[in-house]
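From the pipeline queue, job 12 of 40. The input is one protein chain; the requested action is below.

Action: predict structure.
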Amino acid sequence: MASDTQIANLALNHLGIGKEIQNLTTDTSDEATACRRFYEIARDILFRDFNWPFATKIVALDLIEEDPNEEWDFSYRYPTDCLRTIKILSGTRNDSHQNRVPYKISNDTSGLVIYTDTESAELEYVMRITNPDLFTQDFTMALSFKLANLISPRVTAGDPFKLGDRAMQQYILTASRAMANAVNEEQPDQIVESEFIRARE
């Protein structure tokens, strides 16, 4: 399992920097400062890029009020650890266009709000995980390339050799591989064919 410091050192290694950070939280080097500035941004961007199974969470939403406006029946507080909403549960695992629950994300004076017509709504979403021990190895590697891309101008004196661009290319490859692996770890319900399709066979 990797730590924040190890992930930062992987990012530096991708850029050909041999100097290692001893502790990302306390190290005062330029490399550590750059990694601290962009680490959480890189991590959260990667979380928002995909519905990662290891970061998926389902919660009952906190009701704000009923009939909050003329368009929606209920308003709920957006979860503080949510980085990407997936769906409001409909009661059917294999959602279709017909039973998918409509909702809208907005804002009020206290933060983000979710509007929907569903009473006692439950939201499935990608949560923010700050403990790297919970990351999968391929997610960790993708994160290190994304971090390398973001810090490259700062730690390579303007990145004259375009090492950040190379890191971005590797990020795309490793993130795509990690996403494919995540999809293969799950077994969704089989989609039931319509009577029209079965009649044609």
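Job complete. The longest helix spans residues 163-184.
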